[in-house]
Description:
mainly alpha, 2 domains, 2 strands
Amino acid sequence: MSQLGYRHGNTIVHRFDVRLKILYLAVFSLISVHISWIGLLVLTMVIVAAVSVVRLSIVSLFRDFRYLGVLMIFVLAARSLSIPDHAFWRIDRLVFSHSGFMDGTIYCWRLTLITLMGVVMLASTRSSEIRAGIQWMLKPVPFIPEKKVGMMMGLIVRFIPVILNQVMETGQALRARGIEGRRNPFHRMAILGPPLLRRTFLQADRLVLAMEARCYTEHRTERPLSTTRLDWIGLVGLLGLSGMLLFVA
């Protein structure tokens, strides 16, 4: 089962107002780009605490983001090769520099933290709340149909775990048919792609038919949004933590 989806609970992270969660995600994502490794270490402890509060499985997260890990390896290798410095590892004509390796490590670290923040938000927030929060934030912006944007974002959030579960199911079916004997990764991806796309499009068609049968439109009674004392305490904590991270940067 994919970890990229809402997980029912009544934790402190679940009870935060969705508008504050979106603000957390935006502020910490921007701050993570500018802070040093000390600030990243502090932010990592905060995010790991949030992951444990929401009760996400670290093993499942590694499984869901294994392809992102492959991408980070390529990014790390590219940064190590592109930044000139004294070599700490050499393979024939390929020279991996120490400065490039450290720069690539920090870059991958930041990308991992931003990804985990998004996962925590998806796991602790219903898609209807995300839609309502986005509509509330976009409502003052002129020339933007906030209800359509909110509806699209809600559908995207609902479809992410569906697609990942279909990837797992399709992969299990292909492994049962001996795909593991194919060592060429491109051939295996070519075999996996068509049935996965077919199942995804069929699922999308069923969703569209279900929405049409229920006369679903973006003009509907929205989920009410309200702030509590916990939200104001969280806002003060956001400001204090952001100031501390920028100070240690």
